[in-house]
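dude i think i finally got it to work??
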Amino acid sequence: MTIGTTRRTNFYRSADQGTHPADTPSEFVADGTNPTVILNQFNYAQVVFEIGYEFHHAAQFMRDSWQIGRIDGANLGHDATFTKFGSHLDLGYIIAYRRAGGDIHLAEWKTTPYGFFPAWQPLQTISIPAGEELHSSIGLDYLEDSENRWAVASWVTFRPNPNPSTPLFSAPIFEQANPLYPSEIGNPNHIHSGLNATRWKNDPLRPKPYSAGLHQVVSVSSGTPIQFSAWGIGNSNIRIGIDPTGGTDSNSTTITWSASNTSASFTEFSISTIANSSQVTVFLEGSFSESDSASITVWDSAKLQGSSLANAGFEGTFSSQNSLQIPDGWTAYLEDGSFAPATADAIYTVLTAWSSDGGVSWTAPIEVVQNRETSGSLSGAIPSNVFPLISAETETPTVSFIYLYAAGNPPANSEFIRFGRPHLAQCDLISAECSPSPGSSLLERDIVRPVTQLVTAKDVFDPSRDSIVWTSRQSDTISHDIFATHLVLR
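look at this
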């Protein structure tokens, strides 16, 4: 059977005895969205759909004939999921849905002897903690063993980072301002004096933010007054600095910096300090924090009183340092997001609650896993739904959770993507002990390409077996392939 929505109109088709549903005509059901099909004990379809935040029910009592109405007992909400329990006259469903206020509501829906479903009966409300939001549909499963009637609900929450990281910087292009030096003058607007200057810029075709500079360590006598100056121009934030201790870390707190300015014409920057070691370091810096905008930083005519600078006017040779064209005597530094570690911007948590008495009473929410590496540090995301699978075939009853864990944190504004793979975590239903984060990968990285979507379905003939279907990116990162496998718990 299939159910579909076209322009908020629900259609239904079914077939049996070897006929494919595509070969049978569609039946108009009702106007609405987000339809789901369940069956009564006579295998007649019951279509649950939404109109706004109201749940409605279309009960089939013969072909092309439907009894339609609003579901009694259902709160305002959306995105309902179902798991079946019982059979024949005891047939029913446990329902989970997202309430309009953001919490999770669990309910029971049992059939009558005539195959009709009356009102939803509330079972439990699960609140989402302040500062978090529900990030998925609610997964459900049900299984009876010799002693218990297990019902499990699972979901993913999302807690944004209150201090999200700023976009990571890319390496700029370092070069001499005059590409024709010394025979001719090119880019005269980027030369303050003489025939050459130094500059760096982002790629004008793919502009990214940058933070970079040049530094030079010089010898001095401790206690010597030092004055450093240079002429700069650029639409970036430019400044100069001195480290009186001779250190080369541009993030050091021992550096005295000038004011940072954006200058459309050459402007002199000057700063003074007292050397407190046998060396001092001078810095020329330019940074740009905007994406998708071209930027350039130019420096020329540097001077140092209290010691001497090499290649202060940038009239000397430029040499290659790690593919960067750098004036001799100076050393480049930069922040490069392709090498700098990125931090996760959010916490994703897989949570569960279960019942051993068919849904009458439920545990408090139990944390299963988070987007954490085995070291405990946050990394990656759990970007999709989580699917529970109860098994009584294990030594003690367990519930396994199948979800997509996307590892890694690509730099902001980069074209890198996270590498998602199907993962599995497991909780013991007796002790409530769960696997450590981030769970176990079901497939090795060299077997599966990055996964973007994941769904599962329980085998109706073997409750310990799950079918898993996912989409994987092809090498162009745009096209997708669809794969499937099955999981058996023993």
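Residues 1-115 form one domain.
im so relieved honestly
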